[in-house]
Amino acid sequence: MTTETMNTIQAVNLAMHDALAADPKLLILGEDVGDLEEGGVAGATKGLSTAFGDHRVKSTPISEQAIIGAAIGASLGGYRVVAEIMLMNFTAVAMDMIVNHAAKLRFMSGGQTNVPIVIRTMTGAGMSNGGQHSDYLEAWFAHTPGIKVVAPSNPSDAYGLLRGAIEDPDPVLFIENLPTYWNPAPFTREVLPLGKANVVREGSDVTIISYATMVAPSLAVAEQLAGEGISIEVVDLRTIAPWDRETVRASVEKTGRALIVHEAVKEFGVGAEVAADLNEHLFGKLKAPVRRLGGAFCPVPYSKPLETAFVPSSDEIERTIRGLVA
Amino acid sequence: MSNLPKPDAATLLEIYRKASLIRHNDLRVVRAMKAGLLMTPYYSPQGQEIIPAALSVSLNDNDKLCTIYRGTHDMLAKGFPLGPLWAELAGRITGSCKGKGGTMHLTHPESGCMVTTGVVGSSMPIATGLGWAAKLDGKGGVAVANFGDGAANIGAFHESLNLAALWKLPVIFVCQNNLYAEHTTYANSTAVDRLSKRAAGYGMDGVTVNGNDADEMYGAAKIAIDRARAGEGPTLIEALTFRFNGHLIGDAAGYIPKEEFAQAKANDPFPMLRARVIADGIATEAEIDAIDADIKAQIEAAVDAAFKADLPDPVELKRDVFAHELA
Ligand SMILES: Cc1ncc(C[n+]2csc(CCOP(=O)(O)OP(=O)(O)O)c2C)c(N)n1
Ligand SMILES: [Mg+2]
Predict the structure, then answer these.
(1) Nearest CA among A191, A250, A217 for reference residue A318
(2) What is the ipTM of this complex?
(3) B125 to chain A, minimum CA–CA distance in Å?
(4) Is residue B253 within 6 Å of ligand 1 at its C-beta?
(5) Same-domain status, A80 and A217
(6) Cross-chain Cβ contact A66/B162 below 8 Å
(7) What H or E segment, with its residue span, contains residue B4?
(8) How far is the CA of B151 from the centre of ligand 1 (A)?
(9) Dihedral over Cα of A19, A20, A23, A28: its sign
(10) What does the alpha-carbon distance between residue B31 and residue B45 come to, in Å, rounded to a whole number?
(11) Looking at residue B3, what is its pLDDT?
(12) In Å, what is the CA distance from B185 to each residue of A109, B242, B257?
């Protein structure tokens, strides 16, 4: 456990490096992941094929179905695989392999087989990448029994959760945020188990439940409103599926008010599931209706003011909190 | 095809044994369905027995198989035991998949039956990955991907064949061309006359054989498997065949011209193999009868045990979704 400063790209790279060193049966697979191809478009796998061999860190053709299929097959053959799907929207091209096969083989085989693979992917609004390169699609996968969904909000969590995902015996979709890849933060090199939310700030009036990109603005608003005597607890889900109901319910039982914030489109999103669960379990204890904030109901737009307006803003978070405690 | 390796007498008898197991098992499944004992979509492989029978005599327990909804023939030939198979068909907790997979998802890793898919074409990418694992293991293992003629037109075919050829993986792509995909003829879905021609486009070997002929099928499979084991990469085998029970039981197959069906039936490969084994003096008719009787008895025992076994408890809904049991 070392403390230093690191960004998420470095953290993810280090996590794969440490995992490859720890487990000789771990393989890395994806477009451009080898050092001949510069270790990925963002450099997440830089140096790994040189350090561990290009039979273990393998660049592929542009074949998303074959990438996930090969990862599934190799895992059935006794290996663990981190397969990269360059951008989250491209998971759509491999949906059959992810949803019908990786997620279901354990159940459909009655537990005889399992698929210990991690599908790493990146996404997020903020770089004017437009409608086919920016979506947060975690709800599609969280709605699918058999696959876990993880989205870290900072470099330390990216390291710890990626290590945890690689060690997990089930398939994991691991969502990295592209626009914040290069933001440095204090770093802790520690493996984190999946399925545990992180109470990143304690408070007593309102609980904000968030993950990935929306944790930072949630914390900033909490800090700002603390000055006015509004005490906000911020829970970072870390693992979206299966999510840590116990931690979230305990927090909302304490505060009596809840706001869920995510970058993904609000409609039919993760926030809907969390809100419904809180209503089912804490109805009599809620002091106000559970609120949700999410991306606007449109494809992620290109032009800067539109792209900015698409994502929930700190102002909206603040206004919603004020409404909750009013 | 005269330069293909030929099965010796013992191998031919083994091919017969496997074909007989597949045929008699299929007849028994259809009988159980007609009796109302099994209520399931069942994609009968009747007519396609020789393909996996002649292929799998060159495989061992360490080799892996991916197949499709029409796959009981592939799995029985590979060594999937009758007991867990029938219990699974019957939806019992003693089934290979505890009754959670069923006809379209039969799985039995000990015999190498790794994945059965209900999605057209999806056996291929996963078999490619199993081939990758076998290559990394370096022990000469191979992976077999079974699929139909219709599946040759889905994107997964292209991605898998390219990747397997690029990485020289020990994968045998077995296209069982029964001339129909559901109700659509081969000619109405595919422009090229021989699917094996596509192999050249991937830089891999490809061959079209009469899949109903034990010699041809054995020979082509043996060459492909030997090459794969030797590190020489994948092969596409197009095995021409026919299915006698339509797409699935209940399909009256009105889209198949009567003459075409009658001619295929007249060339039913199973009785032909039986006659040949006897004519070649490989076994006497009495010996063949004894083999068949023994197989039928094994099937009856499996059927019996299956329907006597317990049905799964609803608590199973929480198990095997993830490694940990759901709350
Ligand atoms: C992706 C997908 N599309 C459609 C179907 C429905 N379907 C099931 S079997 C089949 C025909 C496949 O024909 P072929 O590949 O020739 O195999 P066969 O059934 O003849 O053995 C179709 C269209 C499916 N299961 N999966
Ligand atoms: Mg067909």
Answers:
(1) A217
(2) 0.96
(3) 4
(4) no
(5) no
(6) yes
(7) none
(8) 7
(9) positive
(10) 15
(11) 82
(12) 33, 12, 11
Whats the size of chain A, residue-wise? 326
C-alpha B56/C-alpha A203 separation (Å) is 65
Closest residue in chain A to residue B316, using alpha carbons only: A110
pLDDT tops 70 at residue A1? no
| Beta bridge partners of residue A172, listed in sequence order | A118, A148
Residue in the structure block whose two tokens are 């477009």: A31
Q: Which domain holds residue A22?
A: 2-188
How far apart are the C-alpha atoms of B11 and A171, rounded to whole Å?
41
Domains and CATH numbers, chain B: 9-306 (3.40.50.970)
Residues A292 and A267: their CA atoms lie apart, in Å, by: 10
Mean pLDDT over the full length of chain B: 97
| Residue A28, pLDDT above cutoff 80 | yes
Instruction: Say yes or no for a CB contact (<8 Å) between A78 and B133.
Output: yes
- Averaged pLDDT for residues B193-213: 98
Show the tokens assigned to A150: 């993880």
CATH number at residue A261: 3.40.50.920
Which residue minimizes the CA distance to atom 6 of ligand 1?
B120
> Of A188, A215, A231, which one is at a domain's C-terminal end?
A188
Phi first, then psi, for residue B93 (nearest 5°) are -65, -25
Among A108, A301, A49, A131, CA closest to B103: A108
Give the count of domains, chain A: 2
Give, to the nearest 10 degrees, the angle between helix A314-325 and helix A215-226.
50
In angstroms and rounded to an integer, the radius of gyration of the C-alpha atoms of chain A is 19
Whether residue A174 sits in one domain with residue A61? yes
DSSP string, B82-124: HHHHHHHHTT-TTSTTTTSS-TTS--BGGGTEEEEESSTTTHH
- Please indicate, yes or no, whether residues A269 and A169 belong to a single structural domain of this protein: no
Kindly determine whether residue A73 and residue B155, on different chains, have CB atoms separated by under 8 Å.
no
Of B105, B119, B319, the CB nearest to A96: B119
